[in-house]
């Protein structure tokens, strides 16, 4: 017959710890004036912690009158009491501790090499105490980074910072962030902030490190040399090609003296010469949420489209864009056949399509808030078409919301995406009769009457969940 007396056994060990009967270890925990003398037993400590086993077996712990003496000024009496109660009878109560104290407890159990508690305390911090990260993000990141056993906590905090970089970048102590941590952050593809803000924060960090003013006109040669050396390893991590032309001119180009001249030359060419592509060795655009699969548009276009969908006066950015854009159809992969278009895009709800006009920098497209299934006109007041005269410059966009809601969208097997009298066929020869048709379904925004399409893509619009 098997009987379980575990509860009684743990109760006995609790009494042993609280009474200190037969103790042979004296621990002085904390610093003056809050030092506390705690009594314990070598056998129990050695069985539960490699740290204590090494201390007593190698006799590097002080010994006096037959008792081992340990002094731990870096661990408060309260936290040491929590640790010893776990060692003696498996009890651990963390709910009454604030985040900073839980982190101190984690540091203590790591020093004492109590593996079960290292895992447990990390899980508790992740599940219950993440808000304290806002108090000192750079200091907490540095602390966790320095401990190899805190892998779960490191991954979690780093992900939290990437989801909401303002936690770190807007904190007063960001400029004290250690260089290796900054490098790790800038390498992340999921850093959820506009690239120009990353660049500006990097400069702010750099100028503070070198104690130099943020004004190139006031720099001397020594200043320029110091800044170049500080920025050297970080410049390749900035996705300069994802920065808007105006921001590039006013916020990047003005610092041309501390940026490699070949990079400045390439960026000028990219922003000035039509159809110029980024250099092949550049890092890819940072992705947020679902990765945008497109050869035609990037996150800047997506944020603008989302603003148009919600008829926002001010534009969304990558951080507050409420939609994912999921690629349904690409003519580069799926061809221009309209049967394939309907197979991929019917019954998928709201979509946006974009098409690059062959032999030009022009990108056109439209938003269908309904779907593409059926064989008739569909009525809506929310559809629109658009035209970028320069595909890589969103400031060249022209937008036209529907004028005649009864002819907003046409669904038919012989057509691909058809908006009013903007017609797509089973070839790359398309037409636009909205400009001349008497119904004037959409306003004239400069889309040609006849044109050839180099490539077109269709995206399903997916609403993000509230916690994303």
Please provide a written account of the structure.
This protein is of the alpha+beta class. The chain folds into three domains: 91 residues, Potassium Channel Kv1.1, Chain A, CATH 3.30.710.10; 79 residues, no CATH class; 165 residues, no CATH class. Helix content is 37%, strand content 18%. The protein is built from 17 helices and 15 strands. Strands 5, 6, 7, 9, 10, 13, 14 and 15 form an eight-stranded antiparallel sheet that branches. The protein has a four-stranded mixed sheet with strand order 2-1-4-3. β1 and β2 form a beta hairpin. The model has no long low-confidence stretch (mean pLDDT 89). It comes from Rhizophagus clarus. This is BTB domain-containing protein.
What is the fold's blueprint, element by element?
Layout: H1 6-19, E1 25-29, E2 36-40, H2 42-48, H3 50-57, E3 62-64, E4 67-72, H4 77-89, H5 99-111, H6 115-128, H7 137-145, H8 151-163, H9 166-169, H10 179-187, H11 195-210, H12 221-231, H13 245-252, H14 261-272, H15 299-309, E5 323-330, H16 331-334, H17 338-345, E6 351-357, E7 363-368, E8 376-378, E9 384-388, E10 397-401, E11 409-411, E12 418-419, E13 422-425, E14 427-432, E15 450-463
Parallel strand pairs: 1-4
Antiparallel strand pairs: 1-2, 3-4, 5-15, 6-7, 6-15, 7-9, 8-11, 9-10, 11-12, 13-14, 14-15
Helix pairs in contact: 1-4, 2-3, 5-6, 6-8, 11-12
InterPro entries: BTB-POZ/Galectin-3-binding (IPR051481), BTB/POZ_dom (IPR000210), SKP1/BTB/POZ_sf (IPR011333), TLDc_dom (IPR006571)
Domain BTB: 23-96
Protein name: BTB domain-containing protein
């Amino acid at each position: 017959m098997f009987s379980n007396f575990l509860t009684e056994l743990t109760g006995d060990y609790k009494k042993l710890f609280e009474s200190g009967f037969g103790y042979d270890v004296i621990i002085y925990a904390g610093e003056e004036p809050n030092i506390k003398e705690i009594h314990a037993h070598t056998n129990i400590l050695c069985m539960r912690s490699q740290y204590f086993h090494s201390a007593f077996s190698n006799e590097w712990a002080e010994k006096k009158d037959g008792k081992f003496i340990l002094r731990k000024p870096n661990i408060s009496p309260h936290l040491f009491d929590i640790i010893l109660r776990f060692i003696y009878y498996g009890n651990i109560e963390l709910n009454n501790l604030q985040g900073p104290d839980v982190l101190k407890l984690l540091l203590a159990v790591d020093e004492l090499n109590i593996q079960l508690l290292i895992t447990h305390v990390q899980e508790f911090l992740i599940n219950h105490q993440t808000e304290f990260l806002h108090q000192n993000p750079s200091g907490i990141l540095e602390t966790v980074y320095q401990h190899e056993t805190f892998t779960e906590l490191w991954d979690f905090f780093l992900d939290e910072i990437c989801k909401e970089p303002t936690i770190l970048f807007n904190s007063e102590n960001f400029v004290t962030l250690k260089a290796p941590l900054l490098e790790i952050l800038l390498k992340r593809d999921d850093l959820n902030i506009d690239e120009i803000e990353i660049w500006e924060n990097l400069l702010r960090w750099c100028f503070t490190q070198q104690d130099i003013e943020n004004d190139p006109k006031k720099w001397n040669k020594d200043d320029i040399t110091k800044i170049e050396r500080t920025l050297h390893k970080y410049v390749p991590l900035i996705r300069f090609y994802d920065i808007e032309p105006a921001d590039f001119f006013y916020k990047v180009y003005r610092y041309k003296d501390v940026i490699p001249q070949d990079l400045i030359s390439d960026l000028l060419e990219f922003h000035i010469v039509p159809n110029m592509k980024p250099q092949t060795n550049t890092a890819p655009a940072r992705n947020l949420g679902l990765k945008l699969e497109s050869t035609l548009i990037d996150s800047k276009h997506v944020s603008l489209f989302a603003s148009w969908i919600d008829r926002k006066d001010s534009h969304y950015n990558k951080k507050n864009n409420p939609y994912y854009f999921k690629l349904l159809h690409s003519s580069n992969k799926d061809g221009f056949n309209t049967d394939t278009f309907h197979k991929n895009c019917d019954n998928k709800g709201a979509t946006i399509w974009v098409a690059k006009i062959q032999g030009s920098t022009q990108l056109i497209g439209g938003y269908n808030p309904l779907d593409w299934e059926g064989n008739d006109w569909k009525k809506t007041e929310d559809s629109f078409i658009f035209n970028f005269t320069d595909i890589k410059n969103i400031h060249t966009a022209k937008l036209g919301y529907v004028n005649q809601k009864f002819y907003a969208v046409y669904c038919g097997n012989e057509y691909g995406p058809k908006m009013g009298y903007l017609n797509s066929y089973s070839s790359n020869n398309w037409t636009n009769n909205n400009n001349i048709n008497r119904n004037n379904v959409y306003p004239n925004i400069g889309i040609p009457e006849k044109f050839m399409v180099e490539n077109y893509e269709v995206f399903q619009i997916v609403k993000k969940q509230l916690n994303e």
